[in-house]
Amino acid sequence: MGGRLRRELFRMVVSDLVGDEPNLHAARLAQYVGLVRRSAVAHPEWTAQLLRWARHEAGLDYTARAGAAEFLSARLAAGQHGLSRQVIDSVLVDPLDPTWLLCYWNYFHGRTLPKPLKRGIGDAVRRLYTEEAVRQADLTWMDLRLGDVLNRVHPKPVDAAQSALFRRILDRRYDSSAVDATPVPGWKPTLPRPRLTGHTLLVTGLVAHQTVELVASRCDQAEIVRGADDLRKVVRGRFRRHDRVVVVAEGQELDRPLSWSVPRNVPLHVWDLAGREVQWAAVSRHRYRHDGTKEGALWALSLFEAGEQELWPW
Predict the structure, then answer these.
(1) DSSP string over 201-222
(2) pLDDT of 187-229, one tens digit each?
(3) pLDDT tens-digit profile of 146-194?
(4) Do residues 119 and 268 share a domain?
(5) Is residue 178 part of a domain?
(6) Is 128 within a domain?
(7) Contact call for residues 224 and 213 (beta carbons, < 8 A)
(8) How many CA atoms does the CB half-sphere of 55 hold within 13 Å?
(9) Are residues 38 and 107 in the same domain?
């Protein structure tokens, strides 16, 4: 049962590489929160590693911050101590991360800040708040400013220079003439494009040439079938003990007939190139459908398969 929970949560986190951020969809966020809270109590060390990986390697900032907040909340509710402070600190890598985490906590859990939350944010603030951070991240239009974060968590400065900086941040918070910061894009990791081992059956519609070539270039061995109208029929007719099937097309659903065309223990990936908004990836064990135009699509394919074998990427 524990393995199933880990696989399901990992699958959901990976799906954020190829879908909208979970905060855009209440049902999706609620499902994620429920899985994180269960896993934080049942598998705390593994969940801590997952959330750190989500932020540092996958660049899933909202996913990691929300997960860390729920990790802490769930462990407090269960009377479990330890790890929460470290998890909070581990997912905060950008100067605005403490601000967004506090916004999340205020909205979902209220203004009372548990000690592990204050201390974890404080640890991050000591790392992240620099002169450059003030110039780039202390945006005057935000309701919650860097000075507000200092007032809420009361971090202890690392030295006299940082103590002076904290005083200037607090003064700036209440200075109506303060010059606005100049924001820069947040930090994002470069996502890998791994090799796909084994034999891949790659079935494509008429408009997917470039994407198909990208996938094929990363396959150890690929059989490509192009231009068919009935992709389900093609998959049924061409499947011959392949290690995976990838269908790349516009508006192709992962319905029951297509799913049954492939043995249930063989991964079936459907990449939608329709250009319409895909709310989030529709994923279950060995069955994945998502937006194939996302930067992380190829990596997600590899991660989905590794996760089913509990081969974690950290």
Answers:
(1) EEEE-TT-HHHHHHHHHTEEEE
(2) 788 899 999 999 999 999 876 788 889 899 999 999 999 887 7
(3) 999 999 999 999 999 999 999 999 999 988 888 888 887 877 888 999 9
(4) no
(5) no
(6) yes
(7) no
(8) 23
(9) yes
Q: Using CB atoms within 10 A of its CB, is residue 123 exposed (0-12), middle (13-18) or buried (19+)? A: buried
User: What's the rounded Cα separation, in Å, for the pair 135 and 137?
Assistant: 6
Q: Quick one: tokens of 266? A: 């063989």
Residue 53: domain span: 2-173
Sheet containing strand 244-249, strands side by side: 219-225, 196-204, 244-249, 268-272, 287-291, 282-284
Distance CA 215, CA 251 (A): 19
Token digits for 31?
């499902």
Helix (H/G/I), strand (E/B), else coil: 244: strand
CB count, 10 Å around CB of 35? 21
The encoded tokens of residue 145 equal: 């400013």
Residues 30 and 112 placed together within one structural domain of the fold: yes
Is the residue at 190 inside a domain? no
CB-CB neighbours of 194 under 10 Å: 14
Other beta carbons within 10 Å of 83: 18
Neighbours of 238 (CB within 10 A): 15
The two tokens of residue 30 are 């609620």
User: Would 180 be classed as within a structural domain?
Assistant: no
CA atoms within 13 A on the CB side of 3: 6
Q: What counts of helices (H) and strands (E) characterise the chain?
A: 14, 6
